[in-house]
Design a protein that fits this description.
248 residues; alpha/beta; two-stranded antiparallel ribbon; 29% helix
């Protein structure tokens, strides 16, 4: 089964929200800049990107994330968005606050890319759109110490065609799952929680999936499971959940 890229993705400016500019998000933004530049050279209108993150760069972030020692103390979203705009001539926007699914009109986005580790946030994001007919898509990335997954799916209901299940369809246990919010105070402590390149191992297949959608007109998988310790990468075949379709 193949999922064909939505028509407006290929013909209009693609509106994207990037939620989280830390371990995965900072590397995702760098990759989005490269994809945007490349597809514009091929005649596409490119991206309109808004980056959400309330956090500032800490010393423990340097090296593991796309930040440098001189970046410590600066807001992640503002810093990375400014850097992308400077390097590539884009006019992307930074919003140095936490994305609130209950208050923000996320339906203005064609694609939401979620790079937030908090399980409850990811559940709330999807639950807020469960009963809405919405053409928007969700590209979700989650990871542990050395493993992770990328899942691309629909945020809400669809009126026709394939409905790709989203991360919450795969993992309903995200709702109510507790998270550790204890920040890492040093590089050593941070690396004891996550391998250095686990975020990169998750981001790369996510970028490849997005590139295939925009360059080749579709994908034959909707995500990937990765394990950076074993080197294994397993595609998630497309599943048509059928949820939320109107009856014929």
């Amino acid at each position: 089964m193949k999922f064909n890229t939505p028509f407006n993705w290929m013909n209009d400016t693609l509106s994207i929200a990037l939620i989280g500019a830390g371990g995965s998000g900072s590397q995702m933004l760098s990759g989005l800049s490269k994809i945007n530049y490349s597809i514009q050279k091929l005649g596409h209108k490119g991206f309109s990107l808004t980056v959400f993150d309330p956090d500032v760069v800490s010393e423990a972030n340097v090296g593991r994330q796309n930040f440098y020692p001189a970046d410590v103390g600066q807001n992640k979203a503002i810093l990375l968005t400014h850097r992308a705009n400077l390097f590539y001539g884009t006019n992307w926007q930074a919003n140095p606050v936490a994305f609130d699914p209950s208050a923000y009109n996320f339906r203005i986005f064609d694609l939401i890319i979620c790079c937030v580790d908090k399980a409850q946030f990811r559940a709330d994001l999807v639950k807020s759109s469960n009963d809405i007919y919405n053409a928007g898509m969700l590209l979700d990335m989650g990871n542990g110490s050395s493993t992770g997954q990328v899942i691309f799916g629909h945020l809400g209901k669809v009126s026709d065609g394939i409905r790709l299940p989203n991360v919450f369809d795969f993992y309903p246990e995200l709702d109510g799952m507790s998270d550790s919010d204890t920040p890492s105070c040093s590089m050593e402590e941070a690396l004891s929680k996550q391998d250095l390149f686990v975020n990169a191992g998750v981001v790369q297949p996510a970028l490849n999936l997005l590139w295939s959608l925009l360059r080749h007109g579709g994908v034959d998988h909707q995500g990937v499971y990765v394990d950076v310790k074993t080197g294994e990468s397993t595609p998630i075949n497309i599943l048509d959940s059928g949820l939320g379709k109107t009856e014929s």
